Fold:
Amino acid sequence: MRSSYRRNRWGGRPPARLAAVTLALAGTLLAGTACAVDADPADPSAEVVVPTGSASPAGATPAGPTPSAVASPPARVPDTLRFTARTLDGTQFSAADLAGKPVVLWFWAPWCATCASQAWTVAELAPKYRDTVPIVGVAGLGEQKAMKDFVREFDLAGTPQLDDRAGALWRRFEVVEQSTFLIVDRDGKLIHQGFLDGEDLSRRVAALAG
Structure:
């Protein structure tokens, strides 16, 4: 009985349960070996791909537009430019919109011969320096129709022409005669008030623009 047991245990055919376990273990080892061979680390398809919209890795800077520069604060409005009016064509005008720029105010009357002689220079300069040294006409001492005819005759429509028939701005700036030019620098300081011929006006405006 003992010798028969030994033959079955060591030298005989293994029991069926042991054979099945052995076969299963061998299959597992073979499968693991196959997986190890098929998974090639150098294969790009095996790399981890972050899907679009997923969180970025820690420490990474998310892609996106660079924040825009902070806009400059609006210029301080000086007392000299704290007024509003209407132009001869009925448009609302606010001098505060010109803050931070040199400004020329030209006080004229439609019947003034001196004003007529300077109008050509103003008509030439105003469009050229519109964005750097605005020239604003202040019409007074006359009727609106005559003022509009003056603007049309001398081609002054390209620059604001204020309707000051009531004389409010003339009194505010203490203008007592025409033609008078007021020059306000970019800080709002009044640097000239009085007569200017065409050559002087051109020179001063060019200097302010530069």
